[in-house]
Amino acid sequence: MHRTTYRTSLALCLCLPLLTSCAVGPDFLRPETKVSSQWLGQPPTPADTEAAPTAEQNLAQWWTVFSDPQLTSLIERSMQANLDLRMAESRIRQARASMGIAGADLGPTVNTAASLTRSRTPASASRSEVATGNLYQMGFDAGWEIDLFGGLRRGVEAAGADYEAAVESRSDILVSLSAEVASNYLNLRSLQQRLAIARENLTAQAHTSDLTRQRFSAGFASKLDVVRAEALAATTAGQIPLLEAQVRQTIYSLSLLLGGEPSALLAELTPEAALPTALATVPVGLPSDLLLRRPDIRRALAKMHAATARIGVAKADLFPKFTISGALGYQNSNSNAIFNPASSFWSLGPALNWPLFDMGRSRANLELKKAVQEEELLAYEQTVLNALREVENALIASTKEEEHRQAMAQAVAANRTAVELATALYTAGQNDFLAVLDAQRSLYAAEDALAQSSRTVSTNLVALYKALGGGWQTEKPAASDGSGS
Known about the structure:
This protein is α+β, with helices and mostly antiparallel strands. The chain has a domain at 35-112 and 154-302 and 374-467: Outer membrane efflux proteins (OEP) (Up-down Bundle), CATH 1.20.1600.10. The chain has helices spanning 2-15, 46-51, 55-60, 69-81, 83-104, 151-218, 223-257, 266-269, 290-293, 295-316, 361-427, 433-467; strands at residues 109-121, 131-146, 321-332, 344-353. A 4-stranded antiparallel beta sheet has the order 1-2-3-4. Helix 6 (151-218) runs antiparallel to helix 10 (295-316) and helix 10 runs antiparallel to helix 11. It is elongated and about 140 Å long. The model is unreliable at 43-54 and 476-485 (pLDDT under 50).
């Protein structure tokens, strides 16, 4: 009888693992997302088609199109030292460890233990003396939950998707980081250019003011002309400290992006340099390319994958859990005889645990996971729509800002001619001094606007590369497929 029971238990223990071929809960399927066949702001051209094979290569290090070694150096250094990026790498290691923990639940656990217990048993009716003795015990015990309904495997699948989401979060930070460093650098060079323009105009206006005072002393100009000239020069001089403060603050921002103190880049970036420009053709590609290229979209997809897998984890809690447990060891009150065959003990057998009534907790948890999965699906769809909007905004902004820059270049040329003509006419006594001041004021405003427009053209290009998801392909840790099978 005992032998038959043992054989039955052993056969059941061997057969249970063969039943773990199914997993409850929905399998993850990538949602179908319909997008336009072309961009509104960038109609398809043969040039785009020719550039398609190297699109990813161009996007990987898009900042090289500016041909500015200092910009390239800043971005590469930020990818090594930025604190947000390093925190994202820490989160990847956390997700990888969590994936290992989830995977460990699929296998058996084996523990070993040894103990010495000294006990005292009081006298009783059958024994007149107090008994004192030792009990030596050592052995192994093991347990293995049979993943009959796939709850553990769904947990591994969810952990793998969480890891993918952490990897994509790091990639998304790389995209934002490279764009932010480039935008701040371009803004710095633009501010330095505007500062140089302000100083140049202040020099010209101060010269005009001196000339007006001389003409006033000679009786050829009025006191009003002198005051107006001094007011214009003072107004321009008042812009210089504000620009100097913005220059310093921008350097501080770049230092932070590179993980340094505010003063870390002062010596490197304080010397003025020209604003870099780029004439490269951006590999825009097709709207559908964004679904595979942008890391924030892939992160949203991974989060939805994890949420879907956790529905299976919650659903498995509605079903019984089967475990196999066993123990093997030795026990004896005499330490010299503990390893005798007569001191050995063992046990092996399956167990079932099925919560029949929990006040609806398990079903409520299942509904919770379904609602979370629905939210992640909507978040994915919103991320896709936002990505499409960002690209369209960047395309139209790039096109229109270039038109604005060209118009401002013409305005600068016209205002320079106006300053020359107004000064000549005033010197010849054929025009009043107000025309000279108006022409100088208009020239300074046009030059400053041109400098800002040139910066905006470059930063719009950065925004377009960022919207296309460029910048993360240079470096990416190995990722798991996230499957639990």
